[in-house]
């Protein structure tokens, strides 16, 4: 296919539950991944809670979709970024976040964890480089 | 008004596209009945994929899109099965859509 590949960034700024934004954003990422674009997913502000380990939603009666983030690698999303300042402001570190593996089934190239914690300057750079930003 | 499917004398709710309304209601007989409605007799090869999909859902809480299913099947069951020709031969209406329906899962994310 000769279509131009664009850089899509999905920006997640909201906590995983309480609103539908986080789940809807994840669905849009999974659907968008079918179109062979250059996709990155960024977590900022309360959005960093979406990637935290050990989520338990029983008491609020919502589906715990935390395990679904681990499929992003299967959907060929290779770039997942987390803003370090947002993590620190909430007393979190990379240790508190899920790990998402990526593997190329053809070449068997593997990356153990594609979740990358980056500083604010890099967040800004990546936003500037994107052709389109979808903010949730 | 919602539709139902009858399996072993019990009624199970399905949505307007025939997907099982409640994932936890699933019993293997549902797959057999749904397959018969599509003129398919389920073989061990079909069950491999149906069971695979149920395990995938259990682990990740979503039904995979066909492309992801193909890759994941290849990894788990071997490359001779992880290709769309093989999967379409088993599930002519689309390996993800049809097999997910038989497995009692929702319609796959990424299917329109």
Structure overview:
The complex is a heterodimer of chains A (136) and B (112). Chain A is of the alpha/beta class. Chain A has a single domain (7-135), classed as DsrEFH-like (Hypothetical Protein Ychn, Chain: A), CATH 3.40.1260. Helix content of chain A is 21%, strand content 21%. Chain A contains three helices and seven strands. Chain A has a five-stranded parallel beta sheet with strand order 6-3-2-1-7. A two-stranded antiparallel ribbon of chain A has the order 4-5. In chain A, β4 (102-103) and β5 (110-111) form a beta hairpin. Chain A is globular. The termini of chain A are far apart. Chain B is 48% helix and 9% strand. Chain B is mainly alpha-helical and 112 residues long. Chain B has one domain (3-102): DsrC protein, C-terminal domain (Arc Repressor Mutant, subunit A, Orthogonal Bundle). A two-stranded antiparallel sheet of chain B has the order 1-2. The A-B interface holds A 27, 30-31, 33-34, 63-65, 67-68, 70-71, 74-75, 105 and B 59-62, 64-65, 67-68, 71-72, 74-75, 82, 109-110, 112.
